[in-house]
Model the fold of this input.
Amino acid sequence: MTAFFRLVRPYTLIAPAVAGFFGTVIVQKVLSIVFPFHYVGIAVLTLAFLQAGGQVINQVADIEIDRINKPWRPLPAGEIAPETATKIGLFLLIIPLVLNLVVNVYAYTLALVGVILAFFYSIEPIKAKRRHWAIALVWQALARGLLPPLYLFSLAKKVLHPFAVILSLIGFTWVFAFQPTKDFTDVKGDRMFGIQTLPVVYGEEESVRIISYFGVVPLLLSLLLWPIDYGFVCFTAGLLAFYLVITVLLAVEEYKKAWMTYYLGLGFIYLGVSTVMVL
Done:
């Protein structure tokens, strides 16, 4: 059981779970509606299982790389067989599809898109992870940044609501900017297997500079929320605090802490916005 939890990496599921819960709060406040209670649970589980399933499939695909970068993980350590992990990953990805059968066609379609993005990030014929670093980042940003707000608003059949679009753009640019924080500790194995991440291509110092530039974009996009409510000034200030902490941690080579802060910041986008909406 311990190996299973290490396989799904629970810490990384906090952000999608927070997005699911507080995202439904945002949708209800923006649209002045009340969801059936089970919609909240479906949203939380959908986003969490999409993330978990994608991560498990990625670990199966990257088992040889992890023998170098992360030999303590359950797969390279031999605690879980690749065949078993594959079944677990597929099962986790099927759950969102089953859950959204009882919602509506929009939610089911976006859940299906999420499954496709999660699966083909690691698996041929697309295997986005092995493409150009920008393609891999766009793929991740679509799955973890752009898709969740659109999915959450799809629960109310309002996929392209202006608020959903703004929130999606903030999420997309946040993930695109800071997803590379996890790649700094994986350079050795990634380079050996031809994975073109930002640190592999540009080196650590230049990558930190590029990330700091990209990270300004979601801050600027958050300004689009200011006309809606002055409380979003505080939201931008909070997002700026996360940006500054991440860039400082990268500058002092605290890469793991920077990566953890990036995930917390992703959760904060939903927590912060929902707080402003409620207050």
Remarks:
- The longest helix spans residues 37-61.
